[in-house]
Amino acid sequence: MNNFTSTIGQPNAMSIAFFFVFVAFTLVITYFAAKKSKTASDFYAAGRSVTGFQNGLALAGDYMSAASFLGIAGLVALKGYDGLIYSIGFLVGWPLIMFLIAEPLRNLGKYTFADVVAYRLKQKPIRIAASCGSLMTVCFYLIAQMVGAGSLVNLMFGLPYELAVGIVGVVMIMYVLFGGMLATTWVQIIKAVLLLGGASVMVFMVMAKFNFNPADLFSAAAAKYGQKVLEPGGLVSNPWDALSLGIALMFGTAGLPHILMRFYTVPDAEQARKSVFYATGFISYFYILTFIIGFGAMVLVGQDVITHFDKGGNMSALLLAEVTGGTMFLGFIAAVAFATILAVVAGLTLAGAATFSHDLYVNVFRSGKTTEEEEVKMAKRATMVLGLVAMGLGLAFKGQNVAFMVGLAFAIAASGNFPALLMSILWRGMSTAGATAAIATGSVLAVGLILISPTVWVDVLGFKAAIFPWKNPALISMPAAFFAGWLGSVLAPDADASARYEDQKIRNYLGVGVE
Amino acid sequence: MHHGKIDQEAFKGLVRKKWSVSLSMTALMLIIYFGFILLLAFNRDVLAQKIGEHMTLGIPVGLAVILSACALTGLYVRWANTTYDRTVNDIIDKMKR
């Protein structure tokens, strides 16, 4: 099998052409978006003009990162069934967003999820705490994306790592800086359509070789690599660890700032709900496609060839594209993968910029007394700074093992952001001290426990045995955050905040006075 | 907006209904997902049994978990965008009168 030749790793003219078309087209959109982007509501929330369907695609675009496309397809190609377990974990958070936080988020907030937590509490402490939680989530996620971008582009085209990080950084800054949320949303929509379309074509070509019968594909896989590829393997061996990871994935989705921010782009709660439904549908479809792509790569490319190009299997989807559709299709899929990274990084940067400007600058440093121009100006400065920071982090972490960073982002989101958000919506007695304690406890425990867990203590720092036994801390850190929120509220109650709960309820459930 | 005019009974009923729907659907999703995870952890052989020449039970079960997430969100949207929103509009109409 080792006589398999591939053009992966060489500059591919097709792929560079496709990528340039994508960048040129999205920059044209950015130019028109910039003309329409004047107010703070335009910059952060696309003037609340996005429909439920469009936002559903954009949410799916924010969530379907290159890691989930290439990574999960690779996991399936090498491990078979276990890859499916992973994608299910990433999906099941979406119904929870719908049931628990979609409406309150839309009805109570303006631009960031901290708006909801701080609705009836003291602005400054809540904004500072929530900003720390948001920025940590955004930064860890950004590091994973930037390092992924650099190494991926290096593997795909043989371009230097630094150049790839630079291109992603510069183009992303242009989207966000000039086009704000409107441009970012359209970049996400285009990328989501390209990714879903490209993956669908690939699946069609794979299935054509197996009489359009999935059973034939699975049989071919079993015939080649044994029945074990269709059976659950060792991914879920420690039930506590699995439970903890499951909690982080489920509730973390409901605490990711760049996802939560998208709920402010639609006009009302009705559209917000629709957007979660469409997003869930698109993401489900996408994970089903990646499952078939993984098996397709396993059978048509072969595991030895896949690991020859990348030990982690990240090249499986691209190799399959080349086997089924030749160099041209490989070029297209590679360009889509690169565009995917670009779009996700833009969404993250915008969420970070909103936190800096809206939460910290406007509501902490200026105590809410600013003009709209000043707020947008500050948001644009924050975009520049964050873009540079993202590139810096991408360079600083070159060659490092950053696989744990996405897990860490999800753990902080599930423990630091989600409990405070849910409690402030549901519980009249939630006080400023309680919310601050919940965010602080959740974030600190999530970070601290991950540091001494096998993922960092053993895999990154190289110690023999981990102090904390599980790979993910959410099973401890999330309940601890809820407990801290309760304890803080009981010890330091806030009568004014409780009195304002009736107002909050009326706006939350009836949508009266929504911005 | 004068909250004094709000129909307190209807509003309380609305909030109660909203959370009974939301929380039961959340519970159902948690049971489905963690049921699947616990099955994987404790009784993996169930999912490994063959249901065709090579096909295992695990594949349709995994697919069913994915589809259940879609179905539950779909059901919730339908309920919220019709029944729930209609009650909301009724309460707001009464407040304006």
Distance between the termini of chain B: 12 Å
Number-wise, the strands of chain A total: 0
**Per DSSP, what share of the residues of chain B sits in E-state strands of 2 or more residues?**
under 5%
Report the largest inter-chain contact. Answer: A-B, 55 and 53 residues
Find the count of extended strands of chain B (DSSP E, 2+ residues): 0
Tell me which oligomeric state these chains represent: heterodimer
- N to C succession of SSEs of chain B: HHH
CATH C-level category of chain A: Mainly Alpha
Tally the helices of chain B: what do you get?
3
Count up the helices of chain A: 22
Strand content of chain A: under 5%
Name the structural class of chain A: mainly alpha
The CATH homologous superfamily of chain A corresponds to Sodium/glucose cotransporter
Using only C-alpha atoms, the radius of gyration of chain B works out to 21 Å
How much helix, percentage-wise, in residues of chain A? over 70%
Mean pLDDT of chain A: 92
Q: Tell me the number of structural domains of chain A.
A: 1
Question: What would your notes on this structure say?
Answer:
The complex is a heterodimer of chains A (515) and B (97). Chain A is an all-alpha fold. Chain A has a single domain, classed as Sodium/glucose cotransporter (Up-down Bundle). Chain A is built from 22 helices and no strands. In chain A, α5 (82-91) packs antiparallel against α13 and α11 (239-253) packs across α20. The longest helix of chain A has 50 residues, at 316-365. With 97 residues, chain B is mostly helical. Chain B has one domain. Chain B contains three helices and no strands. In chain B, α1 (8-42) runs antiparallel to α3 (58-96). Chain B is elongated. Classes of the chains: A mainly alpha (515), B mainly alpha (97). At the A-B interface, α5, α6, α10, α11 and α13 of A face α1, α2 and α3 of B.
Primary descriptors:
heterodimer; A: 515 residues; mainly alpha; Sodium/glucose cotransporter; 77% helix; 0% strand; globular; B: 97 residues; 3 helices
